Amino acid sequence: MNLVYEEGGDVKIAIVQSASGAGDTESWQATSLSGKKIKLKAKEVWVRFDKPEAQAVMDEAQLLSKEIDLQLLWDCAPEEEFSLIDVALEYFGAQASIPQQVALAIALQGAPVFFRRKGRGRFQRAPLEQLQAGLAALERKQKELEQQALWQQALVAGQFPEVLKSSAHQLLFSPDKNTSAYKALIAACSQTGESPAQLMIRCSAIESPLAYHQGLFLKDYFPNGTGHNKSIGVDQASYEAAVAELPLASVKAFSIDDAGTTEIDDALSVTELADGGHRVGIHIAAPGLAIAKDDQLDQVARQRMSTVYFPGDKITMLPDSVIKQFSLDEGAARPALSIYVDIDAAGVVNKDSLQMRAEMVPMAANLRLEDLEHLVSDESLRDEAASYPFRKELAVLWKAAQLLHAGRQEKRVANGLRPEQLGAVDPNALARDFYFEVSQVDGAERIDIIPRQRGSVLDTIVAEWMIFCNSASGHLLAEHGLPGLFRTQKGWGPMRTRMQTTPGPHEGLGLDYYAWCTSPLRRYSDLVNQWQLIALAKHGVTAKMVAPFPPRDAVLMGIAADFESSYQAYGEYQDRLEKYWCLRWIAQEGGSRTVYVRHLKEGMSRVELVPLHIPIPELATHPRMTRAQVVIADVDLLQLGAGVRVLEIESPAKIAEDVAEENVDKPAEDESPE
């Protein structure tokens, strides 16, 4: 005997092996057509039959079910609940065969728009209103499937449907996976073997691999776009009121930045003292004087957390109008938070002379590294005949900077770290700082990647005095019990450098305290610390009572965590785009390039001329800094990969010989303290 039953929504047939019981309690041990052993009870069985053979019945029923007119079946069915046998007699007549009954069961089970399932083998026809709504939905679904098929064909052919162009970015970066457009895209990708990004670039829906990398980042961090609301800014009356009470500093300050810097956060000044010493001023742009905690500008800055830098462009933390108001541009007095410290004739810093005040600082000049760096050297600073802007001031700053650096190195050694070399660096090292210049040549983009000198006199002057400023700021906050965002480094491991709201040492820099404060136009951490320092400058020992963030403030702790997360993500994005442009640099000379690489560790190497890291398994067993000549080809700008073929691995003797001819100003590849 054979039994018709339902399992998992499908009508099936099983062949009885044995039976037990009788009537309503009868049950069977049976085998399904797929070979599965099952047990069925009388109430689970729809139809019983001996002949024809079970598989033949199912094969015929599958074909017959497709010919059943569901509308006619609905018309034939009674209003009340009915069984399969009842409606089979109405539809096929009194002589309905077993295959016809099974076909009808399959049709009823698969037509929820027409019939409701009321139990095993029992149904009720849907009300007319619901049937009409269901049929309309089916018609819409059919049209959607037809449209999806047309879109799929167009995408495979390399044509992006016009109606989808306005939503192309959303389709790629934030798709609704239930839409026909997304289903057509995925189906087309399955047909062509491409990724969605590859297919959309081929169809010109996405401009380039660069647009893809940018879109991924913007989706997560700037979903509403990178522009600032033009209505948000510092009210002019509020600005004037904030700076009106500030005294005018008796200094001539100057900044030192590269030509592309538009947010000039910091400047220096040197004033001669009667005893032969000098007073050094470190002047930091002071947007914190006019931006208040929780106001509109604060909310903008807190949401962004930092300016985002990447080759060819940047996304600023603050609106351009605010940057223009507070940037330390030359030609006028600018509001600043200044830290002053006295140094003697030998350049020794008197830390007890530390002063801090908010004031208007006359900006005499914005010096540019490109114009000055090649002129400034230890020799020229000692040469009275040398002529370039602020030579005497730079000589004073350089003498003290060397002593500041030496003092930090003593603490680094005490912390178990090796001292960092000042000025000229290990000639076996790779350049770490680069300037990416993207230009248009004959209608095409061209990338030039230029190493920037690290460890120069100007570089050291700026670095040491900004480190001193951050250290002094951290010391002032800690001394007065004010919380802030302290940059700490202790121990080893991936989390050894972190942001916290309580003071702590930065072992890598050789400092007891370190709080970022020199870039308030570019980093939210610095703006937060500036608020705390302004409260200290204005109120002294009572600062804790009026500072925006009191001790153990939960909001400040949240800011520290959010800043750390955003700053890391922005850095990763910058690295990603730098890798993209490095690969563009490789490919722009005919698709491949022969270059020299240096092995770093575990098969990962770096191209000497640009900051491109690539895996080369052949070098995995060789010592660190082993040099090899390779051909890089088959650049994939979407996956950011390339094929590498090793031409020659140099012997240690050859490496040493070539190293002697390299630029001695290249800094070490080792990770910096930050």
How many domain regions? Answer: 4
Task: Give the helix/strand class.
Answer: alpha+beta
Mean pLDDT: 87
Question: What's the shape?
Answer: elongated
Largest sheet: number of strands, sense, barrel closure: 5 strands, antiparallel
> Residue ranges: pLDDT <50 for 5 or more in a row?
655-674
Computed over alpha carbons, the radius of gyration is 38 Å
Percentage of residues in DSSP E strands? 15-25%
Task: Give, in spatial order, the strands making up the sheet with the most strands.
Answer: 4-3-2-1-5
Helix content: 25-40%
Oligomer: single chain
Question: What is the number of helical segments per DSSP (H or I, 4+ residues)?
Answer: 20
**Would you report the number of β strands?**
24
- The end-to-end distance, rounded to whole angstroms, is 80 Å
